[in-house]
Amino acid sequence: MSTNYDPIAEQYQRAKQQLWRSFVESYTLMELIGDPTGLSVIDLACGEGFYTRKLRQLGAHRVRGADLSGAMIDLARAQEAHHQLGIEYIAADARALNPSDKVDLVVAAYLLNYAQDPGELQAMCDGVSRCLRPGGRFVTVNANPLLHFPTAPSYRKYGFETQVPSLWREGAPIRWIFHLSDGAFEVENHHLNRDSHETALGRAGFQTIRWLPPRVSPEGLTRHGMSYWRDLLEYPPFIFMECVKAAGDRDTIPDSLAKLPLGNASREASRQSRQSGTKPKRGSS
Prior knowledge:
Blueprint: H1 9-15, H2 19-33, E1 40-44, H3 50-57, E2 62-67, H4 70-83, E3 88-91, E4 103-109, H5 118-131, E5 132-143, E6 160-163, E7 173-180, E8 183-190, H6 194-203, E9 206-212, H7 218-234, E10 238-245, H8 255-258, H9 267-276
Parallel strand pairs: 1-2, 1-4, 2-3, 4-5
Antiparallel strand pairs: 5-10, 6-7, 7-8, 9-10
Helix pairs in contact: 2-7, 5-6
């Protein structure tokens, strides 16, 4: 994983306020998650706790957030001190997680797209799987492996841009430049194709894998109209997934991962899948 979020934690927190984050990303992700009331949840790559707090406020029973960046976790803990929602935050590598108390739901906003190769992607998917009980769900949003980023349109009007600085291939870096009122910052993630994702998820024990496109909230359509959102919807740079862990699957943690340190949906989803022409997939094993 190539981006160090510690120096840009505060900027990234503010970038969550861009319109597309609220009216497209957050709307689609929360609709896909559905009602979390009573569920135990781990939010991986939680950042400063944006979705972690949402899940707790919507009724999730026990919510934990984990992120590799200590600076992000510091921001999340500062928010917890203010709101006192009962959320536990830990600085941890998702590839090494193996909690004794498995959860009903794992959520991750922009985790898998930081894998630079299939091996790292496999380690992430294994880590997610080890957090879940059999039959538990993994709901995530990541950079879209189905999009040819070199020919993607400009997303500047939404507050960000994407660039591909090298040859487009497996593992190619993708730069995201976020524009804020006081300047820009960038993060880098990597392209791995759909087959790589489905293979890694299947080997990690996920039986059902669904890809879902972004949707605009009714408020977003009312305030800005469909024409404003067209490029983001027709050439989506991010995509959503819902994965279900096989019932009765047993977790293992490889020796190489055990040595890594740990630091300080719904009916609507099915309807969206049908509309977009996607079908449930089972990853190769």
